[in-house]
Amino acid sequence: MNKEIKLCMVGAGRVGKNHSRAITRHVPSGKIVALVDPSKEVREVTGKEFGIENQFDNLEQAIDKINFDAVIITTPTPTHQALASQAAENGKHVFLEKPMALNLEECDQIINSTESNGVILQLGFMRRFEPEFVNAAERIKAGEIGNPMVIKSLTHGPGLPPAWARDLKTSNGMLAEVNSHDWDAVRWLMGSNYKRVYAEIANLKGEAFNVSTPDFYDTVLVNMKFESGSLGMFSGVCPCGYGYDARMEIIGDKGIMQIGEMKGQSIVACTNRDQGLISPIYRTWPQRFAWGYIYELEHFIECIQTEKKPRVGGEDGRWAVAGVLAGTRSFREERPVYLKEILD
Amino acid sequence: MNKEIKLCMVGAGRVGKNHSRAITRHVPSGKIVALVDPSKEVREVTGKEFGIENQFDNLEQAIDKINFDAVIITTPTPTHQALASQAAENGKHVFLEKPMALNLEECDQIINSTESNGVILQLGFMRRFEPEFVNAAERIKAGEIGNPMVIKSLTHGPGLPPAWARDLKTSNGMLAEVNSHDWDAVRWLMGSNYKRVYAEIANLKGEAFNVSTPDFYDTVLVNMKFESGSLGMFSGVCPCGYGYDARMEIIGDKGIMQIGEMKGQSIVACTNRDQGLISPIYRTWPQRFAWGYIYELEHFIECIQTEKKPRVGGEDGRWAVAGVLAGTRSFREERPVYLKEILD
Amino acid sequence: MNKEIKLCMVGAGRVGKNHSRAITRHVPSGKIVALVDPSKEVREVTGKEFGIENQFDNLEQAIDKINFDAVIITTPTPTHQALASQAAENGKHVFLEKPMALNLEECDQIINSTESNGVILQLGFMRRFEPEFVNAAERIKAGEIGNPMVIKSLTHGPGLPPAWARDLKTSNGMLAEVNSHDWDAVRWLMGSNYKRVYAEIANLKGEAFNVSTPDFYDTVLVNMKFESGSLGMFSGVCPCGYGYDARMEIIGDKGIMQIGEMKGQSIVACTNRDQGLISPIYRTWPQRFAWGYIYELEHFIECIQTEKKPRVGGEDGRWAVAGVLAGTRSFREERPVYLKEILD
Amino acid sequence: MNKEIKLCMVGAGRVGKNHSRAITRHVPSGKIVALVDPSKEVREVTGKEFGIENQFDNLEQAIDKINFDAVIITTPTPTHQALASQAAENGKHVFLEKPMALNLEECDQIINSTESNGVILQLGFMRRFEPEFVNAAERIKAGEIGNPMVIKSLTHGPGLPPAWARDLKTSNGMLAEVNSHDWDAVRWLMGSNYKRVYAEIANLKGEAFNVSTPDFYDTVLVNMKFESGSLGMFSGVCPCGYGYDARMEIIGDKGIMQIGEMKGQSIVACTNRDQGLISPIYRTWPQRFAWGYIYELEHFIECIQTEKKPRVGGEDGRWAVAGVLAGTRSFREERPVYLKEILD
After folding, report:
1. Quick check: D278 and C278 CB within 8 A?
2. B260 and C272 in contact by Cβ < 8 A?
């Protein structure tokens, strides 16, 4: 069997818990040896649940006290660059949650620090590891539906994001926090970068949720043109009460392919002919991407063990951030925005 | 255009209404010129709804007073033989609802009187005309799934049958009144007659519905062996609160084919992630077999116009009755029953 | 029964045939008494198939020679205004295929001539009559999914449009000829007019189909903001080899609703576990909207019989044309276009 | 974290590999410390794949040489009793694959030796651990569909069973080797024992597969009456080329519930409108019950760690064997067989 990889989990919140569960139960050659979170209360709960005894306020302390191979960064976006660079400079491999960072400068710093220190950088785009997305990508690449003409994607998530994540002063809002997966996945499956982006937003639930953030929006539709000449779009809705919804659809010049469905379990019941048939829906993202979260972490461990480059890295994270910035400029200025305006 | 065919609707109840609607709205070359029902009240309602002015207590009167080409018999099973023979002897073509009759002697009388009078006899097995069943039958016959090994069918219907239809003294009960379609459809799709039949019944809802008929059963499972050596089964449940359900599944040595689904309309909604996705179910048989009822009547009219033999006739009705008799003997005597015991 | 309505079918091509079939077989109180088409060959084929003996080169001749109540106009868009006004001025009710006309002036002329002559004007938006769309609309209006936030629609059709329909000099191209249904349906289901429109187009199959029309596009994505503040989008792909595809999805603040599916028949088969399960897809629009075409024509006949205003009329057709013009200006000028720029 | 449980895998074939994979990758607190198989070649391949260095010809050697807590018995049915009793007598907990044994005497010996030695006995009925079956069972028990009236189940598997497993001299054939899961699952979900059983079999593919075993059958349909008065049925088809298929359907007096589907992955594609929509099917049982195999082994480990009785044990295995014996007698004697004939 392969060498055990020692991990430091940075962030003990929802994503930290999700990844701790995946590693502890399903990735036997990864071992979480340290847990970092500024909140003692939060880290004690997560630490207890997953048997992680070594707990620290910050990454520096963990590096000082404990021997480990890699960090898994699950903290809020504004902290990503500093943590990733700090880890890299101390020779730790980096698994970094999406969105990569707040801007392209931060992305470049992360890329540079990981590259110059010879450590692995993997981004947390779990759709790239969810079996049906993986198989669909292979089939598309093999030409099954021909040259891709249009791609559609969506991410609709149930909970109101935390305050920092919906304020455009401290984050890039829903386009980044919810739709990073769409930015990445459309680019991945189309095999082309977006060239021009147009976004429409709406704030339709803010009042009901007592959200006073001035820039808040809960609904977004993005149109895009790819460098290949093909077209794409995605939607974001958050908070979205009906469940967690992530699906894609691609039309090529030879056919169509749909990936994912809303149905979360293969049970169908009917107890009232006026109501009709009922099936479970995916309720949450850990449920929707159960295998994706396991496989992305398995892949990270395996890349460390075998000194392989991850299938999804810094450039992919940077492109998603560039899309977010273009989309945000588009709805602010009410016009289509070229990526070159952002990238140059 | 083809010659208009004049029809006498015999029976103004649920099935009579259903067929009147199909003809009036969707079979323009058929015209209902007379309506027969012993209940003045019932026939006036149906007559008014479909604009049928000539109404009679019995078929004899209609034959005396009105000129028509054919009868559509939708009355209770015990009346079938007399009405069908009477129509035939007066030169009228016969469309006869299932079950054909109470026993094989009656079936033979119907077959003989229609044949000897040179009139058409079509049985009301609408599954044979519902597009997905028709296409499936063609594909099976063309060998798509290879030699059929097992067939499964079901008919579950919502309402408690009328008293005469659940009493084994006046009818053949659910095996006949509900499952005639299964008896016919398994034989049709397998291309083979059943050779041996075993039936289990249960009375699980009778008490809740205050049914005191001694032989009442609301649940039946039938196993059968075909002359071809293949196997089959079907279930019947009636009354069945969740909707009207009729589906089939056939496994051949090269594959499987499923026909029909419970979903009655392609709408999916979710308003509560704890409840899940909801789709309409088929609520009633007129909704489930909307096209089948139209096409079987179109076919009848066309057979009259072109002097063609209907796709489903007396022999098919007789086989279904034979199956009913074998199944009934099976559950009464708690043993498998050979068709030859019934047919000889 | 209601009075028979005499109809003149104007246009004997694909749509003319489709509507002739619906009326002849399924709308008994409508009778086609005249057929108009400039091509003798085309009108003879269609006339023979549906038993229409009176055939004319143009509408004027039909009006002169034959007594009828209404016209059904199925000819190319550039002819709509002249034909509709001519019919109206002769006291004929008008059923007019989509798109209503080439521009708003023509729409106004049609509206004026029908209104001033007191005849009915119904537009051929059959989605408004297809049962699942009708039921979904009722459920949305009743508040089932709350306030609509986002609507998505699509129309992907199999065949390459005729030359006049893909040339922006003689038509408004795919946005009009294919996506008129989406323009109408999103407005109908959202209960709000679009306020701003952004369109991206692509020509990805033109070369393979030897299309030399300079403005040709086969792929379009439209984003829109409604007056209500909600968002919408639709896609168009034509020619689209995989089938005829028309589906919608609406997210409200209380839930989601999907309307329509690709599966065209409830048969599922599998004969090879490496290939998987196979179900029929809708191949053509007459198959996809079989009931919608019947019900829209039934409705038209009934409106004439009962002097009722149709559920979908001139204003709806005009809004769809306005959307087309805004969308076309958007992709030409590469910017979002406000409807007020078009309507003023 | 809980104490690591040391396991001896008995049998290195297909099932042994499947369980080794589940434990090695997904059940971190279980560790396979020994592998037993009479074939050196087979055990070396499996041992290498899962890093199991200690390999033995037979269980006795493993017990002598290695310290472990439990055995996982995946060898052919005729070996079950001896192996399970030997393990129990040496104080090892027992996870035993289905079918439990060849006859009730062997079942009793296994139950007695595990009970008298105070070790855990768990049967390998993985449907009881597959999430949708578990949830369905809870919902049925909670009364969602009311009193169960009819249950239907099926297991259709792709490969021709090995010679010993299709010969009624050395095994109980398909009813045991393939349909043990159905015998257990119908009893579990109905909450009642079967009282009477009727089975029809057929040999429809034997010739094509050159099977000369005299008793061979590849197709079976079983009908049953439960002690509760309700009815049940299941089918078995093996070899079955179209995939691995395991689904259930239960009708209660308040509704219906379907569990499982043929679709093995949520991808839908269409590249040809004449062929239609294609989705992957479950190809194999490890794919179909991926989570069930993980969870049943997690449960076994947890029962050992916490000294808990497994959710599925010796009595359940014994009832499945009793069903097999009743079914076999039924088709041999061509009559319904009461369980009391078998159990007394």
Report:
1. yes
2. no
